[in-house]
């Protein structure tokens, strides 16, 4: 009687050998008609953090622009790199939560981002003319939170140290870095308009490792210490509840005691870019489009 376990192992090894042979045969042709893409992005930017009551406040949607370059490794995998610019903003005054209304803070910030990553296409774009895709990248971005005073003048928030950053009395609170790493990821869909032009729409989240996109994270520091070391202006913009208008159902407040909750560092801040893309496809060798089509039907053996 044959040994079924031994036979199964031999069949498994034979199957794996066949897969390896197929991959070795196909591998040289996976880059046979590699395309380059160069294009642009136009859309919107949003923010999620301590100054919004919901995950995202669409009232503070701002514009975003970008350029990118892509390299098709094969029909399904693409390397992507790009530069993007957007603006994010938020304000307590548009929320309904009493705590946020009393705090009365606001911010705005530019976002500059450079990213490098991969796309995975679910369908063959040349065959189907349309494909959904997902992407993941690593990015370096910069930000600079500011706000407006009661006269409409721009005020830079980081130099004020509104939560005691850089003060000897609060040694654990360091000045936050304005250049940070983020992890962009998301999904989109693209359409092959012609052999060379590709249009699409993309939605991308950005996970950051900072809680200071909005200059808010922890607790209030002692007001007198803040005034003595950073000036009255720092205290004025650490808490703006005394500026609440008389017409509001929230009465003006006074600067909270040292250690009172100002924000929450439980979750880091996020930013979001979404919008439309248009790119021009080129390269891939002579007659690349037809070569790639022939490659798919004739070069790789089938099981």
UniProtKB/TrEMBL annotation:
It comes from the Bacteria. Pfam families: DUF6089. This is DUF6089 domain-containing protein. Residues 19-143 form the DUF6089 domain.
